Amino acid sequence: MKLKPCVAATSTLLVLAAALPAAAQFSRPESAVKYRKAAMTMMGNHMGRLGGMAKGSVAFDANVAAANADLIATLSKLPYAAFVEGTAGTDKGSAKANIWTERAKFDEAARLFQNEASRLAAAARSGNVDQFKSAFGNTSKACDSCHDSFQNQ
Amino acid sequence: MKLKPCVAATSTLLVLAAALPAAAQFSRPESAVKYRKAAMTMMGNHMGRLGGMAKGSVAFDANVAAANADLIATLSKLPYAAFVEGTAGTDKGSAKANIWTERAKFDEAARLFQNEASRLAAAARSGNVDQFKSAFGNTSKACDSCHDSFQNQ
Questions:
Q1: Distance (Å, rounded) from C-alpha A58 to C-alpha A141?
Q2: Using CA atoms, how far apart are residues A58 and A148, in angstroms rounded to an integer?
Q3: Could you list the pLDDT tens digit for every one of the 153 residues in chain A?
Q4: Which of B1, B13, B58, B68 to mutate to test the interface with A (most CBs of A within 10 A)?
């Protein structure tokens, strides 16, 4: 695997989030749903990889934890543009319609999660396992809180 | 959206790729399949966002192109650990069994794509639209070549 330059820096991610209206990024509503589910699947997987370290069943490794948390922080910026109007569902795991009737509350929940994910990456990198466990708990709570409000259970 | 530290740097991604045996990262084979499909979905979407600029139907914007290409380069490291034994399929889009009988060839195709994705990010950042178009073409070819050999069509 070749070395490559530092990617997904702040400035480029801000560009990515701001460059296009949400609907313009997806050719069809189904594409938006598929995309946001993909981002959530990946975040869930990498949160799961951190879960063992947070629970203490796997030895804490700051580098591994930071790599996973960095990726979660990067991915945390991506799904929200894909919550385009008209893509609510009723199945378990699908988006509830109140995302669009309470969009400000939804956006705030997204920002909270993004902030917690950034803090998780910093805590992992610090090498302090207690800070990491605390930040992991806060990030998990941010996931759950948003899902409880805006996802069909 | 708050500023956050530069994420997904080379060292942490190398750690992520190398830290665990592939099977240990997924609780079940189905989880591995879902994860790799999610990574491919996201890469396909961001390649699509670059396609208009590469074809000239959308004005080239180096920052937007670099943001998308950086993300593709980051994601390009992730799906391959999820090609765990016993997860070949027969449906359209699924993994062909020759991934595991020709693993060295598959790994080489993965490396080629990862390298082209890194070059695409550098070309986008250069601001030279011709370099970007050339690198986009090479990256697309790397996608197609691997799919032609190892994905059920």
A1: 21
A2: 28
A3: 333 344 444 556 667 666 666 667 898 999 999 999 999 999 999 999 999 999 999 999 999 999 999 999 999 999 999 999 999 999 999 999 999 999 999 999 999 999 999 999 999 999 999 999 999 999 999 999 999 999 999
A4: B1
Out of B1, B19, B39, the one facing A14 most closely (by C-beta) is: B1
Pairs from B18-24 (Cβ < 8 Å, separation ≥ 24)? B19/A61, B19/A63, B19/A64, B19/A67, B20/A49, B20/A64, B20/B81, B22/B81, B22/B82, B22/B83, B22/B84, B23/B84, B23/B85
Q: What are phi and psi for residue A130, nearest 5 degrees?
A: -70, -40
A151 φ/ψ angles, rounded to the nearest 5 degrees = -125, 135
Reduced to 3 states, what is the DSSP secondary structure of residue A148?
A: helix
Q: What is the pTM of this model?
A: 0.90
In angstroms, the CA B47 to CA B69 distance is 8
ipTM score for this prediction: 0.89
Distance from CA of B16 to the nearest CA of A (A): 6
Structural Rg of chain A based on CA atoms: 16
According to DSSP, residue A95 is labeled B
